[in-house]
Give the backbone structure.
Amino acid sequence: MGLAGWIGKIGRNRRVMALVALLSTFAGVGLLIDRPKGFVLEWLAIPLLVAGAAVFAWAVWPRSAMPADNRQTLARKLLDAITFQGRLVPFFPAIGAAILVADLAFNLALSASPGIGTEDTIVLLLAGTLLAYGLIPKRFARERDFVLVFSLSLNAILVLPLLVARAALMDYERSVDAYSWVALAPQTSAVLSLLGVSNNVHAVPGSTAPALTFTPPNLGIAVTAVISTACSGLYSFGIFASAFVAFVLTEYERPTRRTWILLVLGFLAAYAANVLRMVIIVLVGYYTDTAQTDLQNMLIAHSYAGWIIFLGWVTLFWGILLKFLKPNSAPALVRPVGVGSDQTNGCRTCGGSLTPAIPATRCVCGAYYHLACASSKGRCLRCDSPVWTKPPPGSHT
């Protein structure tokens, strides 16, 4: 099969296309937020984001007219709560513009080195999402909610703690290094010790971040690596965690045991991948650096290893997730059916009998409705699934 054949085959599989779009988008966001300083790779961020958006649009764009998705997912319930049942949505453009102005003013007034940093990029992403929210057609409500929840989660994980710490310490240049002290440096040190690499974690003068010291056998001198917030992999973790939260909230209508298990497993696995990233960086410096290379191998691993491991982890996790996950919010079709002798129950809305003279529908859960009753209620009274009075285009009855 030639290249054109493979492209056509992938194009017919929306699940594969969605995975390709996710990988491209995550790669772009990862390079944009957690840039490998000093390498031209960061300039691929915008092309990757554009490619991801294009493939995603191709994957989800309806082949024919589709009704708006009115399912009450967890994301929709959350957004309804924080927007006072949608009353704040018309003000999203103004709120987005205010966030944009506030971020720029913060940098000019309080920052010793004004510029668009990592946290500024995250804040501007939220501002742009709010500005564009009302422009997205309602038939893409779930995708629109996914982007908004992702942006909100990213700011809650990566920006809000930093602002709280800076306000509490009255130090507007402060970085949040508590994560490295508590959840990264000790664990990295323990794994390295199990692998036979002697090391110790300690503080260094002039920095609030922990340092890890080890002695590469080929170098012969002790090397100290400071694990600051910027190089801890926290941003990659925040990207994954935010996307995963947005995915679960937009796919599920009710919190179930599966929902919580998915969230916990996703966070734990992303955290493990982050520790693995630091271990690999140190191992590269420990085993490959010499007096001639002068730690260049570890610096290259620092710039690329996190990004590569992040993409590998995303590929594995989301590939499995998209293949085997069957969300409880999948649209249940109410298909028009003929009224047969096996229909022993009446309409669940009005209680009236089902006869061949009155058009009826059946939900996949087994509940029957008169078409008129189904149209008036919109949702199944038994399983609370959306009630469609006719199959969507392209489906089979």
